[in-house]
Amino acid sequence: MASAPAKPYCCSSLNPAASAALPRRAALSPFPAAKPRRLSAAVAANPSHPRAAAVRACLAAPPRRPEYVPDRIDDPNYVRIFDTTLRDGEQSPGATMTSAEKLVVARQLARLGVDIIEAGFPASSPDDLDAVRSIAIEVGNTPVGDDGHVPVICGLSRCNKRDIDAAWEAVRHARKPRIHTFIATSEIHMQHKLRKTPEQVVAIAKEMVAYARSLGCPDVEFSPEDAGRSNREFLYHILEEVIKAGATTLNIPDTVGYTLPHEFGKLIADIKANTPGIENAIISTHCQNDLGLASANTLAGADAGARQLEVTINGIGERAGNASLEEVVMAIKCRRELLDGLYTGINSQHITMTSKMVQEHSGLHVQPHKAIVGANAFAHESGIHQDGMLKFKGTYEIISPDDIGLTRANEFGIVLGKLSGRHAVRTKLVELGYEINDKEFEDFFKRYKEVAEKKKRVTDEDIEALLSDEIFQPKVIWSLGDVQATCGTLGLSTATVKLIGLDGEEKIGCSVGTGPVDAAYNAIDQIIQIPTVLKEYGMTSVTEGIDAIATTRVLITRDVTGDEHSASGYSSRSFSGSGAAMDVVVSSVRAYLSALNKMSSFIGAVNASSEAQESISVKTSE
């Protein structure tokens, strides 16, 4: 009896038996490749070779993304990917991104192929409203990819007119705008947080969804917060009412990550079966990861009928995080035969680049064993595993690294160094997915040359670290002029720092400390005079070697000990900063200044908002 063929490499999309069992639409891979794959000579010469069928399946043309209609999807197998990295993901402690960083991440999310980008919570601050508006204007109107895809741009709001007005002001500039509004529906939330009756909650939800539609927004998403712990009959009722009021998407959140996969799948199935009018809306999932089940719950929801999945890059988010985009998307791709042919519009070859970009700009690095994008995800150290891999990769890898863009070959053979000119460097930036204007490029190129003079070869990782440090920084209130530090075993460490203010005035601070970094931070504190608490400090080497660039990340909060303004709203807020340099002290100083600039900008915005409110109050009283 002939032995069964080895399971083909790279998931069910490359499994001939599985693909044959699917309808033609479902069997085709929905992930367009950046470069065409070719069969090796050995494989091409042997059609029965297990890799032959695998690669042929990869070469199959993907189905087209269905035309976007807010309240329906013409292809029942298509699953919309709703990315909330810039909203829920940014709520991770210390993960605040600047407006420039948010814009560059949003561009990359569009290239990745996400259907909806939740760009922020516009009512939370004037800066967030401006950031969402910028994303709506640029990313929300710029076609990307061969199919000219333009993502929906979404803004979050609570169920009140002020929030909804702010959200609409931010997203209305996009070609496909969406308002996402929510209110809690679980008994514990209604009783202890809202202090409202179920009847009052239903009335508010109906009124606010109708109000959002009345502004001219054709696409309104409604979320019953803490749906996982809400009464089922009450859920059916409130969802029916918001559908009548104009909701086009019904998002079902497991807000505290409480449910198990079979429970959450049944919740979605029950909502689909028992909610009147559900055929006029899309069911969505939003799963938190408190019990480590966010991705599993999300997949259970999709299997039960949800056709929008809310996820974040690297799974970042509140508390333990959210369902991970890369895990959910690759699971759908790999196990399509068990999910009735579901597929997404994600170009999976952009996953690695997007993951690295979010890590760089959020300051939240993934653990080495993180599924799909962790440093060890495709590493094999066991002798038995290595032996199997050398004989046939499919023995221990179900996903090809190429499928997520892990190996990024340089199409032009360019190796950057000190002799590289502007054209080569600009080409490399485009290849890495970064678009910056001429002034930003000249600022970056100056830093690049400084590093290239000291390093034989400048890697992609070096480029990304320098970009983050030079371009994607908060509004510059204080910039670094010079820093000089001394340290050793013969006495106290000392540091002298020169900072340059907005008006060009130079200020110098000198201090001592337990080490050169502590001394430099004390010198900066002398100049800026904002009391802070350093909550986290971390440094990593971008690449190997003694000449590697060091990237530093810090997390600070305002020290409110004895501060009369401790209840002003920014007392407990964390601000992250990152810096990069070949000198570890300079890298540390840049990171600290980045965080202080964020804090200073936020304090200025809060104070300006308070003054404006006071002015309005005075005029009203007059």
From TrEMBL:
Pfam families: HCS_D2, HMGL-like, LeuA_dimer. Pathway: Amino-acid biosynthesis; L-leucine biosynthesis; L-leucine from 3-methyl-2-oxobutanoate: step 1/4. It comes from the Eukaryota. The keyword Plastid does not apply. SMART domains: LeuA_dimer. Its EC number is 2.3.3.13. One of its GO terms (cellular component) is chloroplast. InterPro entries: 2-IPM_HCS-like, 2-isopropylmalate_synth_dimer, AIPM/Hcit_synth_CS, Aldolase_TIM, LeuA/HCS_post-cat, LeuA_allosteric_dom_sf, LeuA_bact_synth, PYR_CT. GO terms for molecular function: 2-isopropylmalate synthase activity; metal ion binding. The keyword Transferase applies. It catalyses: 3-methyl-2-oxobutanoate + acetyl-CoA + H2O = (2S)-2-isopropylmalate + CoA + H(+). Keywords: Amino-acid biosynthesis, Branched-chain amino acid biosynthesis, Leucine biosynthesis, Metal-binding, Transferase. Belongs to the alpha-IPM synthase/homocitrate synthase family. LeuA type 1 subfamily. This is 2-isopropylmalate synthase. It comes from Lolium multiflorum (Italian ryegrass).
